[in-house]
Write a structure and sequence with these properties.
Length: about 210
C-alpha cells in the first residue's frame, strides 16, 4: 500500500529525473532469483541527490509515525536500505540496527548488527520490494531475536502478487512511497518510455519468471 498518491507521483518523478530507473530490453538485467528484467530500479542513486534523499527520508518518517507510531528501534535491510534506515532513525531519535543477508562467517558471526533488547518494537526500512523474500527474511531474523516488528516501510515496490501474499502470510504490514504502476504512468507522461515499452513492461510484471526466457 502506497503512503499516498501525490507522494508516489513525486517519487516516480524524482527517480526518473536522477536516472535511478534504467530500461534495457536488448540486454535484460538478471536478478538474483534468475528472473530476466527489462527494468532496474537503483534507489542507491537517490543518496547522491540531497533533495531527493531528504524527500524520501521525510516521507518514510511520516509513514512510520502515521502507520505504526514511534518505535523503539529502526532496522535497515542490508545493504541498500542501511543508509536510508540510518536517516530515518536519526530523524526519529531512536537506535538503528541492520540485518545482514546472512550471518558473518567470522568474528561474532552476527546476523543483526547493532544493539537491541528483546521485546523492543522495531520498524524495518527497505529500499525496494521485489519478490519480498529477502525483506521477509529480515523480518523473521528480527522476530527470532525477540523484537516486535510493527511493520515495514520501503521506497518502491514492483507490486508482484506473490510479494503481497507473502507479506500477508507473514503478518507484516507494509507501506511504500512509490509503486510500479504510478512509475510507468509517469515515465510515459514524461516520454521516458514509449507506449510499446508500457505494453512490454506490463507483460513482464504479469509473470517475470518466464519473461524473455
Amino acid at each position: 500500500m502506497i503512503l499516498d498518491i501525490e507522494t508516489a507521483k513525486q517519487v516516480a518523478k524524482s527517480l526518473l529525473q536522477i536516472k535511478a530507473i534504467i530500461l534495457n530490453t536488448e540486454d535484460p538485467f538478471v536478478w538474483a532469483s534468475g528472473w530476466n528484467s527489462p527494468i532496474y530500479c537503483d534507489n542507491r542513486i537517490s543518496l547522491s541527490h540531497s533533495e531527493v534523499r531528504t524527500f524520501i527520508r521525510q516521507h518514510l518518517v511520516e509513514g512510520v509515525i502515521s502507520r505504526y507510531g514511534k518505535p523503539d528501534v529502526i532496522a535497515g535491510v542490508a545493504t541498500g536500505a542501511i543508509a536510508h534506515g540510518v536517516l530515518v532513525a536519526q530523524e526519529l531519535g531512536v537506535p538503528f540496527i541492520y540485518v545482514r543477508a546472512s550471518a558473518k562467517e567470522h568474528g561474532r558471526k552476527n546476523l543483526i548488527e547493532g544493539k537491541w533488547e528483546s521485546g523492543q518494537s522495531v520498524v524495518v526500512i527497505e529500499d525496494l520490494i521485489s519478490s519480498g523474500n529477502s525483506s521477509l527474511a529480515a523480518v523473521k531474523a528480527l522476530r527470532d531475536s525477540g523484537l516486535k516488528v510493527n511493520g515495514m516501510g520501503a521506497i518502491f515496490s514492483y507490486g508482484f502478487e506473490h510479494a503481497k501474499k507473502s507479506f500477508e502470510e507473514a503478518s507484516c504490514e507494509l507501506f511504500t512511497l512509490g509503486n510500479y504502476d504510478i512509475l510507468i504512468d509517469k515515465a510515459l507522461e514524461t516520454k521516458y518510455i514509449s507506449k510499446n515499452d508500457v505494453k512490454m513492461l506490463k507483460e513482464w510484471r504479469e509473470d517475470p519468471s518466464i519473461w524473455n526466457k
